[in-house]
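Researcher: We plan to redesign the surface later, but first we want a full-length starting point. Tokens attached.
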């Protein structure tokens, strides 16, 4: 009796064409980058919250000192603002978080340009009379680019907002404005709820998720 080879009895996965493999890899990369972004967003919020709390506490102390100075002898000088090493460290930490988020957003742009190149290649094959069927289930190839572009634009706008927050949050004296910065960082207004649906749909289409 002939010995069975290790592959016997195991259904083989269909071999995907190169463009399909690359799009499938891109979908997995999108998932990983979006998860990393969310972790960084949580870390950044924790740091930004510390900054706001320190600023509010600092203002409270400054107000107390001003009242004390007003009640003291005329002509006495107001104390100089106190340097806070902890505040400075938190600002550096938030800036470092922003740098990591910038790298992620650039990788998202690269994924989008790669998907565009695949779409252009597919379009060339179509004009040459080659395959016109979807490379996975139902999505035409250009739709992968449309989804990537839409996601990339969301994160690009959100990154620009975060850059403004990092520049301004430690320098603002307006408590209401600081709370707006804090809320904007946490809730990410430019990343729409549809982003998660788009990602899940892409993972489903490429076989990373099962129905």
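Model: Full-length starting sequence:
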């Amino acid at each position: 009796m002939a010995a069975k080879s290790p592959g016997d009895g195991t259904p083989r996965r269909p071999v995907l064409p190169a463009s399909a493999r690359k799009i499938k890899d891109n979908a997995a990369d999108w998932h990983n980058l979006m998860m990393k972004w969310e972790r960084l967003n949580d870390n950044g919020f924790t740091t930004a919250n510390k900054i706001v709390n320190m600023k509010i506490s600092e203002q409270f102390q400054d107000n107390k000192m001003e009242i004390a100075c007003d009640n003291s002898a005329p002509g006495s000088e107001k104390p100089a603002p106190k340097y806070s090493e902890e505040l400075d460290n938190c600002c550096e930490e938030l800036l470092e978080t922003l740098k990591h988020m910038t790298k992620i957003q650039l990788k998202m742009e690269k994924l989008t340009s790669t998907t565009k190149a695949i779409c252009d290649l597919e379009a060339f094959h179509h004009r040459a009379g080659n395959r016109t069927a979807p490379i996975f289930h139902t999505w035409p190839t250009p739709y992968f680019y449309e989804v990537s572009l839409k996601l990339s634009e969301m994160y690009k706008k959100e990154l620009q907002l975060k850059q403004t927050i990092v520049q301004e949050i430690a320098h603002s004296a307006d408590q209401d404005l600081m709370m707006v910065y804090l809320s904007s960082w946490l809730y990410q207004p430019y990343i729409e709820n549809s982003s998660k649906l788009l990602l899940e749909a892409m993972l489903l289409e490429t076989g990373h998720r099962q129905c």
